[in-house]
Design a protein that fits this description.
four-stranded mixed β-sheet, Rossmann fold, binds nicotinamide-adenine-dinucleotide, 12 helices, seven-stranded parallel β-sheet, single chain
Length: about 350
Amino acid sequence: MPRILITGGCGFIGSSLASELLCLGYQVTVIDNLSRRGSELNLSRLLAMGAEFHKSDTCDPEALDKLNDSFSCLIECSAEPSVLSGAVGDGARSLLNVNLMGAVNSFEWARRRSVPVIFFSSSRVYPYDRLNACHYRETETRFEFVDGCSGVTQAGVSVSMPLDGVRSLYGASKLSAELILREYALQYGLPAIINRCGVVAGPWQMAREDQGVFTFWAARHYFRLPLQYIGFGGNGHQVRDLLHIQDLVDLVVRQVAALRDRPSDFRGDIYNAGGSIRSSLSLREATEICRRLTGHEVSTASRIEARPSDVIWYVTDNGPTGKVFGWEPKRSAEVVLQDIVAWIKDNASLLKEILV
Ligand SMILES: NC(=O)c1ccc[n+]([C@@H]2O[C@H](COP(=O)([O-])OP(=O)(O)OC[C@H]3O[C@@H](n4cnc5c(N)ncnc54)[C@H](O)[C@@H]3O)[C@@H](O)[C@H]2O)c1
């Protein structure tokens, strides 16, 4: 079976992909610098399943060059994935180093060996000032999109949304990496697929307050700890769509096969990948589901002032992603939260230190 390289392979998305690909019989090599708290738990799982692991950093091109050349695909999942990183303090240089230079080093490694690339970008490339200027109606539990935004409908944000605007340094780092990968694809003929993911959640996400919010929400309920609704009135009415990690894994397995069978069809094409309007929910609605699933009621304070770069509403319009890859997300937001709570329950003593 072909060998696949996953950078950031001990993270949430990388390790979920690695474990599925190993189950399907692929050989998998994972590199990670283990900077994400909890990534070592994912590493143990992958080693037990037969993955090859190198502790290295994508910011170090020489470390990448030490890997042998027999890979059929590179899946680039290494990043600092929080939209808040670089927003305050001195984190900007480190964010750009990892998200931009780390990605460029990985693309360059792939270009020199003609290895097709799958890259994980983010819905944060869509400007938040444009999204927040749309017209919304507020119901008892959530905001609903009405109109007023090019490229956005009630079905969600499509890849045709104009990109001029302000998006956060994180979003800018992902958009810059996308642009560079497209240049590599078009100028050097490197087969490449870019996935712009919305909120992905599920088991083995080592959530923090600033990243992986729905897993964090479920964990705070499970461990009976207080929560806070932040921004947009402080009622928890902001909305996201949740993509179950297994739905994302199903998509990427199809993309690996598509790159193998028809590599010249993919030249840095961009695909939205999210749960869609069917799996959308507000934080307030998430609270109700988590209360039901855990049997625990936690206090929810309100903070009026929004966090930097936050959006009132983001729902993914997957557009052609489904048609091109014969895929659609199957699991509802409730199933995502159910699976997270079951995972926390099964691993509570390990996870308590990491998730809260
Ligand atoms: N999780 C989501 O909801 C989501 C949404 C949109 C986009 N994404 C993107 O998907 C990708 C994976 O995200 P994730 O949720 O798995 O994040 P994660 O933090 O769980 O995984 C990232 C992994 O990369 C590793 N890493 C960080 N810097 C590294 C470096 N310089 N060299 C080697 N390893 C390094 C970390 O230790 C971690 O294990 C990222 O590019 C992220 O921007 C994630």
